[in-house]
Design a protein that fits this description.
By secondary structure, the protein is mostly helical. Helix content is about 85%, strand content about 0%. It has four helices and no strands. This is Secreted protein.
């Protein structure tokens, strides 16, 4: 009888540990996503300031490069379909702004970018 009780307790402890570990992984993923979304929001704000700073056009490219790096990191660390779509939409907006800047537009429309960043933030909010 003791063996059955010990086995049942061990099985229960293992199940509890597995559940707790899975829960921690989900929390860690959500926190990582939230940190990345926060970093992206900061980068989008920096891009807005770069657009306003017409004296230094290199800031636009640097800001876009920063957002691209943050998106690459996010895409490499997620398998969530909603998050992948939001990151893809944000990447598309960055590409469109980069194209406009390369064509000489010093004040590109940032609305699609801010909308996509807002969507990504919603997806990342636990």
């Amino acid at each position: 009888m003791r063996r059955h009780t010990a086995a049942a307790l061990l099985a229960g402890a293992l199940a509890l540990t597995a559940t707790a570990t899975a829960g921690c992984t989900a929390v860690d993923t959500a926190l990582g996503c939230a940190r990345t979304a926060d970093a992206l929001a900061t980068s989008v704000a920096d891009l807005s300031q770069a657009v306003a700073d017409t004296e230094d056009p290199t800031r636009l490219t640097e800001s876009l490069d920063t957002i691209d790096r943050e998106l690459a990191t996010l895409k490499d660390t997620t398998s969530d379909a909603d998050l992948t779509k939001a990151a893809g939409d944000l990447g598309l907006a960055v590409g469109n702004i980069r194209t406009a800047v390369d064509a000489g537009d010093t004040t590109p429309d940032l609305t699609p970018l801010t909308d996509a960043a807002g969507e990504l933030t919603k997806v990342c909010t636990p």
